[in-house]
Amino acid sequence: RSSYSCCFFVLPCCFFDFHGKYSRKQSKKSQYREYLDFVVQVGSVCGFHVEEDCLRIPSTKRVSLIGKSRTYQPAEWALVDKQITQCISNCRTCDVAICDRRVEFRRKDHSGVCEEADTEHSANKTETADTIWMPGFQPREKVEQIRNCASLPRDFVDDVVLSVANLLLNAVPQNSCSATCDGNTNTWNQGESLSLKEVAEHLNKEILKRLKSEYGGLQTLLKNSHQVFEVLNGRVHIRDWRKEKLSRRTKPEVKQRLSAEAFKTRLCWFFIHHPDGCSLPSESCPYAHGTEELR
């Protein structure tokens, strides 16, 4: 309804209609296929030639629907817009009524679009078509707020990462991890593992207050810092890249090739901050040991 020149691309995932969870109407189709057909029909009713494509993404729900052209001429836009408004008003889950009008709906042709049974209110709906899209509809903000810790200042994140790493390293100073690297036995301090609660108790209130507004808070920030930490079952560990090196050998060739493309594109945190340096030699570490190695 934005304009005649508007196009759309949609990648249907969760099964929702305009007001809540989508109710199935045909048992002969899979739930996914039936929902795709529902979205196609909405696009068609809104005057689009709806095309279907399959994306090359690692997901079971990868069918996309595209509307690039209209089924009517620009001169008919005002008339079709009224039909679209009526369609949106009528497109309800069949067992749901509008609370403020107590209007009942009945199913039409198993198509997923419901037709209003109470004609007394049809005129009222048409009169308000230009001023309201549907009762109770609240669009999301034009600028979506990022709250997964990705928008936090880099300095703030680095300070938290360093504080938590020092906490784990100093929790049990004598706790060391031994492993054989290139035939030589090296002792490298992996520190202690602590619960998220224990880690939070050692951070100041200002840091916790700032993280509280983010989804997942401290846990999300530590998981985002994949190079340094490993968070398993609510406990925080310092990542040992010697174990990661062993696991990479068993990865499929495609994943190994993708990993190689990101080799040495960031500085090694352990080379810069860990008291024992990096547990891996420079040629084996996926991160750069110094700016001269950066790709």
C-alpha termini separation: 47 Å
Structural class based on helices, strands and sheet pairing: alpha+beta
User: How are strands sequenced across the largest beta sheet?
Assistant: 1-3-2
Q: Assign a percent range to the helix content.
A: 25-40%
As a percent range, the share of strand residues is: 5-15%
Helical stretch count? 10
Shape: elongated
Low-confidence stretches: 93-131, 178-185
Task: Report mean pLDDT, rounded to a whole number.
Answer: 79
Largest pleated sheet: 3 strands, antiparallel
Write the element-wise H/E pattern from the N-terminal end onward. Answer: EHEEHEEHHEEEHHHEEHHH
Radius of gyration, in angstroms, nearest whole number: 28 Å
Tally of distinct domains: 2
How many β-strands, per DSSP? 10
